[in-house]
Amino acid sequence: MNIRCCAVALLLALSGSVFAADAVVLFVPDPLGMWLIVFGIAFLVAEATLPNYGVIGLGGLVMFVAGAVILTNTDVPVPLMIGLGLVSALLLVFLVIHALKTRPRENVSGDAGLVGSVTPVTTLQTGSAYNGWVHLQGEQWQVQSATPLQPGQRVRVVARKGLLLEVAAADAAPGGE
Fold this sequence. Notes:
Elements: H1 2-20, H2 31-49, H3 55-70, H4 78-101, H5 110-114, E1 118-124, E2 131-136, E3 139-145, E4 154-161, E5 164-169
Parallel strand pairs: 3-5
Antiparallel strand pairs: 1-2, 1-4, 2-3, 4-5
Helix pairs in contact: 1-4, 2-3, 2-4, 3-4
């Protein structure tokens, strides 16, 4: 989907910049400038497909602008260069923002999501004040504590051993009991 968005944005930018120019100019430009512009566009497209947080896109933007500067000695319309440079910069900003939104977030499932969670004890196991049950992350878990538990007491998950959670009182230190 990102490639399609980039292609549409590039086509709109090119068409808008061409209409802003005084006339469509057919030219035989400096090959170095053209190669820099082509590689700059290729790098911007690569930025859309690779998870690199703007590094390749920044290089592509620099190449694009350098190629445009080299081509200023030819009859390339200035509005075309300015329009393409601005659209490239906006595209790079858009891609970096979306890349940063995909950064790793806090774990909310598995052992990493369980350890450190605080929840109340729902019931105690018959005949033992050290074992009970809690409702955590949509599941009923059996818990075990080194200190006696009471129904309604808030406990913090310290470790997980299979289907058994080791807990400590919530007001105890998070590192253990």
